[in-house]
Amino acid sequence: MKSLKADPDYESAKAGGLDAAARLVLRCTDVDFLEKASQEFGRDVVYVSVHAEEAQGKNKIPLALAKHLSIETGAGLDLDIVQSNRAYHTGAKPMERLLARAEFAGEVQPGKRYVLVDDVTTMGSTLADLASYIQAQGGRDSRITGVDQCYARADNGAC
Prior knowledge:
Blueprint: H1 10-14, H2 18-28, H3 31-41, E1 45-49, E2 53-54, E3 57-58, H4 61-73, E4 76-78, E5 82-83, H5 94-99, E6 104-105, E7 113-118, H6 125-136, E8 140-146, H7 147-152
Parallel strand pairs: 1-4, 1-7, 7-8
Antiparallel strand pairs: 2-3, 5-6
Helix pairs in contact: 2-4
């Protein structure tokens, strides 16, 4: 399987390089990936990315993917919901991830359907915390997508 971490722009994007993140996302998302997202989520959703503070900077991969999906599918994009603490989950062990919970702040549109976007889903704890926040604020039907899903399809000729 092709590795996301082997992408030439991965380190820069993970450290906060938006241009590097955009290049990584464009290389990864083919027409089939975008069509699947459009069919699965529709246009009446809001893409919201995990704005995580990593040890090396603010990871821009989720934001780049959320923007790209929003533009290509005609769906909404949320830039207000952000992670309000530093959980440092990258490279953390499972128990460390469960103990260092991600917290979020920002306005949620009550009744709106959200699609949660991250770069990698390891245990899902950050996304679970984001989904919980959105649902507690009145958002609904949180679904998940990420760059790692595209890279996982590389064995089948995608990406």
